[in-house]
Design brief:
Helices cover about 35% and strands about 15% of the residues. With about 120 residues, it is α+β, with helices and mostly antiparallel strands. The relative contact order is 0.16.
Amino acid sequence: MDYSKAAFAKPGPRRAERRKRKAAESKVVQSVREQVVDRDQGCRACQQMGRHPNGLGRLHMHEIIYRSATRGQPMEKRVSTANCVLLCEHHHADIHAKRLKVESNDDPPMADGELVFKVIR
């Protein structure tokens, strides 16, 4: 049977499509990371609360609203300077371990404004 005149062409390989999407997403993340580093110039929690007892460590970009909560939205909305903050590895680990909480007066929380870091006991 000849399928050359079929109405729908065979789709491309999923692996290639996924690779293209990941490459485009990583460019967005890298661009936002550069802007966040320029804006924050160090750990925002250390600047407000003082240094972490274990030392500064490497700097990580943290999304206030996690990417898993914004799945299905365009990457430009998921990762933006308004949602990302620069933290040292120790404060970043504290946030994910629920020992530290980031709060903002804005709704939804925005990293461009003032943030409040609260220790959870």
